[in-house]
Amino acid sequence: MVAGSLDPLMKVPIIGAPLSGGASTPALAAAVCEAGGFGFVAAGYKSVADVARDIAKVRAKTQRPFGVNIFFPTRLEADEEALSAYAELLATEAERYGVAVGAARWSDDEWEGKLELVARERPAVVSFTFGCPDAQVVSWLRGCDIGVWCTVTTRGEAQTAAAAGVDVLVVQGGEAGGHQSSFDDGDAMPIGLLSLLQLVRRVTDLPLIAAGGIASGAGVAAAVAAGASAAQVGSALMLTPEAGTSEAHRAAFAADAPTALTRAFTGRRARGIVNRFMHDHDAAAPKGYPQVHHLTAPLRAAARAAGDAGGINLWAGQAYRLAEAAPAAEIVERWGAEVRAARRR
How many other CB atoms sit within 10 Å of the CB of residue 58? Predict the structure, then answer.
């Protein structure tokens, strides 16, 4: 891609967020691309072989450019005693669903293998979440003719990513659903998107992509007016037929429960619709990602299979109530028209 411009990648300034954990599918990524937006393959939690298959499936459905999102393997300090205590506390959940609590373990999510995969497959973009690779890795990927994007949640993270040589910054506000993509996973109050766009723009001239709480064409237009080159949307696409969102999760979008940040499911702060599991375990949940993710994974899988929305992570942004059960292409095309109309006005 050409540094400083997103024009070769999309006809409308709308990016389908990589929704790791099942909601992202090749069909969703391809539909967003075909409608003129930019879709992503979510590599998080998947094997290298599975990611390769997803890339092939997207290419079978569209000739448009698309991206692959990879988790940066930041290893943050975790309290082993706190993790053990949390595992004991989750015994009630294990009994409820008839499965064993998982093992608390750290993993790099097949980091090296996924880097090698994208270097071979050469998607248009590789984006990173939870941290930024060093300048050597960034330069290597760019040398493979791959654009490099990094998700940031503070001005300091934006400066770090810019210094590493990335092409684009995905600016994630605190309104966003799912994991906060902060490098350090601290306890500070996350910054709202509008404030963060202004703070980041002050320290870099890189193209900015706005993410968090955007769920309409007007929202996209507002993000662009605030200085973003495009908007990345996730929750707004989770009710589309192409998304892999579970039935229990889809049903939760029809309710009116609030969202909150929690470590209860994965040990890293993430925004989801408040449910029973969050009520029961948020206060006791320790820091520790992906250790807590592995602890709760069997419990969440069993709850999802049972259709129990009270026991799964209902990731959703603050504007999730605006999500529509319409085809992804229809949404992207309609929002693109609304953005063009807003620009004319």
Answer: 24
Beta-carbon contacts of 58 under 8 Å, excluding residues fewer than 6 positions away, are 26, 29, 30, 33, 39, 41, 66
Helices and strands in the chain: count of H runs, count of E runs:
13, 11
The domain ranges of the chain are: 1-73+109-238+322-345, 76-107+245-315
- Spatial CA neighbour of 23 closest among 177, 254, 170: 177
The residues near 161 (Cβ < 8 Å, ≥ 6 apart) are 132, 150, 152, 169
How far apart, in Å, do the first and last CA atoms of the chain sit? 30
Cβ–Cβ under 8 Å, residues 132 and 157: yes
CB 181 within 8 A of CB 150: no
DSSP calls for 51-73: HHHHHHHHHHH--S--EEEEE--
Task: Report residue 169 as tokens.
Answer: 């910054």
Here the contacts of 95-99 (C-beta below 8 Å, separation 24 or greater) are 96/311, 97/299, 97/302, 97/303, 97/306, 97/311, 98/302, 99/298, 99/299, 99/301, 99/302
Domain 1-73+109-238+322-345: give its CATH architecture. Answer: Alpha-Beta Barrel (3.20)
Dump pLDDT digits (tens) for 46-101: 999 999 999 999 999 999 999 999 999 999 999 999 999 999 999 999 999 999 99
- At 345, the pLDDT band (50, 70, 90 cuts) reads confident
DSSP letter, residue 192: P
